[in-house]
Amino acid sequence: MSVEDTGSGTDADDRVEPPPLSASLERGEPHGVDAGEEDPLALRLEGLILGAERRYTPFQAARSAGVSMELASRFWRAMGFADIGQAKALTEADVLALRRLAGLVEAGLLSEAMAVQVARSTGQTTARLAEWQIDSFLEGLTEPPEPGMTRTEVTYPLVELLLPELEEFLVYVWRRQLAAATGRVVQAADDEEMVDRRLAVCFADLVGFTRLTRRMEEEELGELVEAFETTAADLVAANGGRLIKTLGDEVLYATDDAGVAAEIALRLIETMANDETMPELRVGMAFGTVTTRMGDVFGSTVNLASRLTSIAPKDAVLVDGAFAEELIRTGEAPASEAEAAEAAAAAEKEGEEPPTYRFALQPMWQRPVRGLGVVQPWLLTRRPGKV
């Protein structure tokens, strides 16, 4: 929602407004078309959801918020809103949002660049949520319950009932996630570790997904992807991991502990193998320094985990040398079966309990990996009886 500020002293109400550019009501963006041309239900729904009527052009909203048009445009674009020219499509809530972001910058709590990042991360996350709710949730619920009723007659009262409940739930989940993320930051050893942390990073990828897309109907494919993402998300959350993102046939998660990441990976393969409708899975994991930005992870550790996934056998987990070393260091896996046998024999001789290892590691052939040189993969498996 941006236009260039001309710097003119002409009052915005006296301006001749240019033809508005396109925007999307379905994405929650203010429409740029004249109100007389719009569907009355669309306008009523917009008013219901936003809780306010249209009053401002972008220029007027920026001026009312005490923000330059340039900064307002940066915020709006970061939030994912389309340019709307100078259509009168903004509300008091838009003005208040600008004031809040600008106030955080003026108070020195956020830099301008950080405020833009806050706007972008919030916009991207909520845009995906809103799309899902419309495509998968509201669309199904607004099917006419009785013959002869139109979707129009059903949608407004349904949204009116759902809106406050969904809003409260969204705030609750956000606060819970914020508390968890804050806890991770507080526990970091130093400021540098808050951004560049040592994490276990894991990619899990469905085998032969491209072939499946050619054989399956779209609805069947959608159900398969949803089942895979749901299974992965549940296992990651239940075992203390953090789901970074899902990419249809692939999920990416991270944990602070290599043993936790290994347990999730093996449980995911075991769960999928017990479902005849699901294809095989392959998993690649690496351990090392990771840069975190806007909820995502970056760096050579992430790249290595991705490459290991591409070369992993079906229904198997490959890890890099650093991941294997971390499991050995923490006593989760022996360096070799010979070492495990020696440790067990020594413990028995001393009348002590032998070490209990959850995982086994088998070195694989070294191989070149594009962009990362020669790497030593390790095959990760569960030791017998350690389910």
Show the helix and strand layout.
Blueprint: H1 40-50, H2 58-65, H3 69-78, H4 92-106, H5 112-141, H6 151-186, H7 191-195, E1 196-206, H8 209-215, H9 218-238, E2 242-246, E3 250-255, H10 258-273, E4 281-293, E5 296-298, H11 300-311, E6 316-319, H12 321-329, H13 337-349, E7 359-363, E8 367-369, E9 373-375, E10 378-382
Helix pairs in contact: 1-6, 2-4, 3-5, 9-10
Overall description:
By secondary structure, this protein is of the alpha+beta class. The chain is 50% helix and 15% strand. Strands 1, 2, 3, 4, 5, 6, 7 and 10 form an eight-stranded mixed sheet that branches. A two-stranded antiparallel sheet has the order 8-9. A hairpin with a 3-residue loop joins strand 8 (367-369) and strand 9 (373-375). The protein is elongated and about 85 Å long.
Choose one word for the global shape: elongated
**Number of beta strands:** 10
In helices, the fraction of residues equals 40-55%
Strand content is 5-15%
The SS-based structural class is alpha+beta
Averaged pLDDT: 81
Order of helices and strands: HHHHHHHEHHEEHEEHEHHEEEE
Give the biggest beta sheet: 8 strands, mixed
The end-to-end span amounts to 54 Å
DSSP summary: helix tally: 13
Cα-based radius of gyration, to the nearest Å: 27 Å
Please identify the oligomeric state.
single chain
List unreliable stretches of 5+ residues.
Answer: 1-36
